[in-house]
Each structure stands twice: as C-alpha cells, then as structure tokens.
TrEMBL record:
It is a multi-pass membrane protein. The chain crosses the membrane at residues 15-41, 61-82, 102-130, 142-169, 175-196, 234-252, 258-277, 289-311, 331-361, 373-394, 414-439. Belongs to the TRAP transporter large permease family. One of its GO terms (cellular component) is plasma membrane. This is TRAP transporter large permease protein. The keyword Disulfide bond does not apply. It comes from Rhodovulum euryhalinum. NCBIfam families: dctM (TIGR00786).
Amino acid sequence: MSDLIPGLGAGTEMVILFFLLMALRVPVAFSLGLSAIYAMWQIGFGLDLAGDLISAGVTKFSLLAIPFFILAGTLMGTLGIAERMIRFFRVLIGSTPGGMGVVGTVVCLFWGAVSGSGPASVAAIGPMIVKGMEEDGYSRAYAAGLVCTGAALSIVIPPSIGLVIYGVIAETSISQLFIAAIIPGLFMGLMMLATLPFARREGPAGSPALDALSPAPHAGLPYGTRLWLAFRQAFWGLVTPLVILGGIYSGIFTPTEAALVATVYALGVGAFVYRTLSFRGLYEALADAAASSAVVMLVVAYAGLFGWVVTVEDLVGTYSEALLGLSGNEWVILLVIMLVLLVAGMFMDAITVMFISLPIFLPVMREMGWDPVWFGVVVMVNLAIGLFTPPVGINLYVAANVTRLSIERIARGAVPFLLASLLGLAVIASLPSLSLTLVEVLR
C-alpha cells in the first residue's frame, strides 16, 4: 500500500492526518476516526475491528459520570438553582471591594463543584454574572473574561469530567484525584481575585446592581435579614457540593454513582422544594445535556480507535523516548509537557488532548517517578487554561454567544486572567504538596 508520506510509519501519518483534518475544520471526533481508520487500513487490519474498538472505548462504567454530571449541571441552571446561589453570594460579599468581580469568581468556583464542565458553566451562569459585573462598573469584555476563566476551573474543581477521563486513562483513583484538586482549584480562584484591583472600573463600587437579583420586598431590609432570606432560598443549591463530594469521600457512593445522585437531587429540589420543574423545562434540559454528552462521548468513542493505533505502532515508546532524550532534568521535561498541553489546549478540547497525549506522557511520568495524582492535577490545570486561551479556546466561543461580543474583545478581557493563571500553574507544578497534602490526610 502506498504511504501518505513516504518514509513515515502509519502511526505518524495518522497524527499528521489528524492535524491536517483539524486545520480543514473537520469536527474533532471525525478527525480522530478518519485518521485512525486510515492508519488501520495502512497497517492491514480489517476494518471490522473498528466496531469492537469503538464499543470497548465507551463501555466503561466510570464514563457514565459524564452524561449525568452534564445533566445535573444543566438542571441546576434550568431550575433556578444557579440564580438563587448567585443571589446569595451577591448579598453575602457583594459590598466588599471588587463587588461583583468577587461574586463572579466565587460563583464560578462554586458552580464548578456542581457542573464539572467549563462550557456548560459559561452557558449556565455567564449571562447573570456578566450583567451584574457590567452594572457594577466592569467592562463587558473583562466580565466575560472572568466568566471564561472561572468556568474553565470547572474541569479542575471536583467533581470534574476531565478528572474522570484522566482517571480512566491513567487507571488512577478518581476519588483521590477529586481530593487532590480541591486546594489547587481554590488557589487558582485566588489568583483570579488578584487581578480585580487592576481592573478598570467604569462606575462606582457597590452600585445598586448588587441587589438586582434580591427579591424587591427585601431590598430595604437590614443586611443580616437579607442575608438570611437569600441563604434560606439558596440553601438546597448550596449544599449540592456537600451532597456530591461528602458522599464520595465518605464512601457512600462512587464518583460515577455521585453523578446520578446529583441528577436525582437536582430533580428533587426543582420538583418539591422550588417547584420550578416543568415538562418543558425537563425536556429542554435533557435535550441540551444529551447534545453535550453526545459530543463528548463521540470523541471518546473515536479516541479508542486512535489510541489502539498509537499502541500497535508503538508511538508511545517512540515519542516518550524522544521526550526523555531531550534532557535528563525532570523539570525541563515537565516544562516541555506543560507547553505541549497548553498549545494543544488552544486548538482542541481537553478530552481530545488527553486521549492523544496521555498515552505518551504517562510512561514519562512513571519513568520520572512522579505521583500520578499530582500529575493529573497539573494536566487538568493546563487544560483549563487552554479553554480560555486564544485563538480557539472553547469557553471564548460560548461567552461570545451569550454576550454578543467578538472573540477578539473577550480574548483581550481574558488576558489578565491568563497571566495570573499561568503564574498559578507554575506554583501548582513546583509544589506537589499543594495537591497531595489533603490526599495524605484523608487516605
């Protein structure tokens, strides 16, 4: 059979073809599938094997967490749980320096413990946060940049779909990954807050917009009363992370089962507490979650083909040896891995990047003696930054859709957060104890 590029193996040709298809704007899943099928044809394996490989790639129990966490996050937004949480945090900390900037950061971090998906978080809470920040004097572009950044941390803050995928690929405890990501996720949130004093404000701090979501009859009441009323309304949403994470860490249910618990919990709160559940709202939530889940699972399915070729052609051994040959210094190798992840994250979604790169990076991780849990957190922070890094960070596109701003304006608004996040990434990578201390305490 003739080679696409003479002198190169089928595996390397597959990688080149994948990036060529991506450059031609072929959807990621089909770029993976077509390039893998081409390589299988070149190798000489029957294409009837493709169906078995696709089936094996998606029939993993732990992957059930993905559609249910997406559905839980969608329901939280549809049923008004997100709005009540934002209202509570606006009353709680809206009058502090930074105003809605602080509120937006805290809500994004909190929502990350509910949604687990960066783009879904932008869509669910972005419009409310951007509107409040704009009324509080922040530029619309800066507010959109904050939402893009905070929502990206949804794949770091547990429960995280990204960590579930990493745990499956690396065969690492998903529960330990969730625990390890808590402190780094909060630290990245602090780095976001550090940018607020440098934001240009176009209006006075503490504008009336801070109470925009508060019930009108309570607007003139004392702070303590308003806080209590907002807390009482938001209570069932605020305890969601405790239900999910508490159940996982106490051993009541697994991370996969937690996704189903979160979905049932959201339905119960919407139906019996807030009474906001309707057949139309449920249908829309199911449709949105199904569409989002289908995109993710299609990538996972075709990534199974891609990964099989990587294994058969021994690309793992070839590329990991090349990476190890760059330097004997583990920090240099880690820096190269992080740069690769950051650049890849600019052009591809986090799940695709992991399926392509982790088979190469994990052997290097083992050779270097790095902790797989710490490495998973570093990988996830890298990929989170990629979600809001130009030119094609997916959060930027979702934010452009909900704010009606151009990608270029939102990208400029995200620059301060990008710089702060890169600094935070450097700290997390250089201090493994930041990720592993809590794991050791709870182990």
